[in-house]
Amino acid sequence: MASVISANVCYKLVFFVPSASLNTCKTAMIAAGAGRFPGPGSYTECCWTTTGTGQFRPGDAAKPHIGALGQLEQVEEVRVETLCVGEEVAREAVNALKKAHPYEESAYEMYKLEDF
C-alpha cells in the first residue's frame, strides 16, 4: 500500500528570515498552501524553526533592509522548514515568501522529497 505522501509530489521549503519578520513570512507561505501534511490527520500550519546567526556584507549596489553598504553584518535569523504538497503549492509558497520577506534577496532552498 502506497503512503499518502508517495501519492503526491512533495517538497521541503527552507528559508531564513530575521526574527522580527518571522510571523509575517510564516503567515504568507501558509496562506499559499505550505505547511499542510497530506495524511489522514489533516494537519495544517506545520513547520519547524530554529534560531541562528546570519552573516552578509551588502555590495555597492545593494539596498539592505538591515546593515550598511560594504559593512559586514551579523543578524539573528530563524531557519524555517515546511512541507509543500505539489509543485504548484511549492511555487506559490516561494512567491508569497518573496513578497513578504524584508530582504531584497530572500534566502531559501527547495528540496524535492522522496518517500521510502
Automatic annotation (TrEMBL):
Xref: Gene3D superfamilies: 3.30.70.120
Name of this chain's protein: ATP phosphoribosyltransferase
Organism: Patellaria atrata CBS 101060
